[in-house]
């Protein structure tokens, strides 16, 4: 056992560790902030990620409309948690962009959520630590929207209920008709007519933005006369 | 079947590489689903070759009997007309016939060019 | 009907007074949406339904959505319908229609509108800026004269939306930088959906069309000229709303079923599947693509896109006929296949940008070539033209031709009111008798499915208002003829083919495969009349009002399914399944057919007020006077027919003309079945009253054009 005179070298005592572990355990039990001693926010990794093939998307918006439908029973672009942007007057491949939530490891949208004692935007440990927003707790400060480092922000603003929302890998999809979340179905993945979205449990390289962009085109794609690259 | 055709003479070669009058054109078309059928009349052997060029999206449309007659009467190439008839009678399908004709017509055009190059 | 699926209000624009008001959709819900609603709105709001030129100030043009737009109904989420009196038809420009796809209808629904009614004429060119509930009339003088693509890009800029992708969320309320709205109107990442005219529409020429994005067009009907006559340049829409759906769970399930059961699997693809709904995403461009660097591109909600975008800088979003109109000529000029593709796709870009409907060239360009070759048209000739006819096939010629037709210069001046009209002006009526000018019905070009062979196409067109352009059945011809051409096994034999159809042709032709027998002995039969009725009624509701895409629906047969049954009318993914999931209605497939019948009757009533009489319902003379010769365009036209023994076989339909007298008898049969007076073709009161359309009967009676009752 280390005695307290070792603390000067930045190590914690057993008592502090046990105290911290107790706090941590208690915090996990009640879903409180994952604040470790030293004010470090520990966010467990998500167990699911969406990958997209930017060259395969046909820009039909079905994923957007289906996402909103599965979550809320209404079809919408504004309330969709996946955004497909397209410019009809741009050339391939810059004509379409697929903006999905990356379930970031460091989750800036979680970190910045000011709600206490339990964050509104946080990993959901019951569903593979999916970063999702509890709209009952959300206070509508929009800090998470601004904190998302990607453009467009992967957190959306629902102006009707004045709360933020985001992709939850279909955890909370009362209209999907089958279980969602990392262990279940993702509406956009299943419904995309081109199969341009896939789901993986392997976290992409967080340092490389393009690690979420993959090639989902099988041999049939090449036979249809479109690029396999 | 032997579809060998001897090279044309100079006079026939000139006609084969020329363009016939509008009134002597061969009525032809193209089936392009779902657009339908489009007219694509032919006024030269070169245009016939273009019509017959294999294409994944469409099928050339030509009455093969009328084609043989047009080759004989308008282009004045009895030898070629004879082979066209042979192909028409022996091909296993219309598309096969078109492919065989495409190759034949390509060969004939090349023969005609060589004859005229040689006599130039 | 319920409110689900609908936005709840229709935008009514008076361009003369710059007034924008809202009509409750509830008032018109009995008509479904799309064409039905548009026709009913036209009926109520057009003060003079006798007009016969769409450029008349009294014309009312409606751009209508359906409850299915903006949802995930497969290949119905993104279509839009335009109705009004058209331009350029002969002898009368009927109340007509055109459809287009893309994003416009979705965005309009999200903005909170089920449609737009356009009345009157603006004093100066305007464009309409719709942002949710806000409707702003803007000065279009800076846009007038610009092509459709430049117009759209400039409108995006004026609205304040950046080009490109990877753009940030924008707040609708803050787009107007000078205007600070207190209300949060929501955010968006999308571009405004703009519908616009180009120079062709501005000059009010026949065949001017409406263009949206790069390649979506309301082509037929001359609606570009209608907008031009109203000084309306464009409508732009941005919406941040949503569409309530009655049963989202069922909707999602039905969509998933469609993908899994009816569409070719990308893991085990059947490249030659016989189906309409279930093909692989093969864009229907009519030339080899210029590059593999491309993606499929589609309307909103489509199950497999028919368009494409490339990296080469041309041809984006063009498909089908616009990529084929110049093909016969470009092929002869191009040095190689790559150049042929480039010319064709750039020729498509030309018509898109001018806003000119390329379909008129389907047979029209051959006629012009004919006139040139015959020495009648050209520099210093009887029909003067300085166009470079010797260069036909080049891009230069294509651009100059479209420019002339769009700006009423050169031959465009005489052709501005219609091509048959021009033929008469030039003393070329005989071309309609010989077939040199194959404009078969109402001054519209023959579509590519000759009325002497494919009866439902021609009959449906002439009994209606335009080239029907409804591909319900003609895949039979293309699939079977291609199989014959390659001597490939026939996937579905003739008898099974007709039975697969007949199972779904309720109510008029259910279990009656003979309705598809187009043989000489059956071509003027009551059975064929029932098929034409079914087709027009199905299309008027399911395709033109509910807005299921014509390219994908109906899906009668489908080789992706074990029993070959298609999705149409199916209990798991039929049209009615989707309609009911969205709206909460309990419509049967047959209920939809009946709704289509009512809409068709409303249309006919408008035509009657415009002056229609059975005596004018005739094909162009060449259809009766000349035969559709074998090999004229293709060596055979295969179709299921019964032989003398009553056995079904695929038979060649080439080699015949229509018999005018027998066609007259067929018309009588058709009128009888429709409940229209047989002498005039006018609807009867008894027919209309049974359809709750007494108001129509009263109007026809007041105009002395009500069909007399018959024994």
Q: SSE order of chain A, as H and E?
A: HEEEHEEEHEEHEEHEH
Spatial ordering of strands, largest sheet of chain B: 2-1-3
Uncertain segments of chain B:
none
N-C termini distance of chain B: 34 Å
β-strand percent of chain B reads 5-15%
Question: SSE layout and pairings?
Answer:
The complex is a heterotrimer of chains A (229), B (120) and C (711).
Chain A: H1 14-30, E1 35-36, E2 40-41, E3 49-52, H2 62-72, E4 74-76, E5 83-86, E6 96-99, H3 108-111, E7 121-124, E8 130-133, H4 143-147, E9 155-158, E10 163-166, H5 187-191, E11 197-200, H6 219-223
Antiparallel strand pairs in A: 1-2, 3-11, 5-6, 7-8, 9-10
Chain B: H1 10-17, E1 29-32, E2 36-39, H2 45-52, E3 59-61, H3 64-73, H4 78-90, H5 94-119
Antiparallel strand pairs in B: 1-2, 1-3
Chain C: E1 9-14, E2 19-24, H1 34-45, E3 61-64, E4 80-85, E5 95-100, H2 104-110, E6 115-119, E7 126-131, E8 134-139, H3 148-159, E9 170-171, E10 187-188, E11 193-196, H4 199-202, E12 210-212, E13 216-218, H5 223-229, E14 232-238, E15 242-244, H6 248-262, E16 294-297, E17 307-310, H7 327-333, H8 337-354, H9 361-373, E18 377-378, E19 383-384, H10 395-407, H11 412-415, H12 419-425, H13 430-434, H14 455-463, H15 475-485, H16 494-502, H17 526-543, H18 575-583, H19 589-610, H20 622-625, E20 638-642, E21 648-652, H21 660-674, H22 685-690, H23 694-702
Parallel strand pairs in C: 1-6, 7-14, 18-19
Antiparallel strand pairs in C: 1-2, 3-4, 3-6, 4-5, 7-8, 9-10, 11-12, 11-14, 12-13, 16-17, 20-21
Helix pairs in contact in C: 1-19, 6-18, 7-8, 8-10, 14-17, 17-19, 17-21
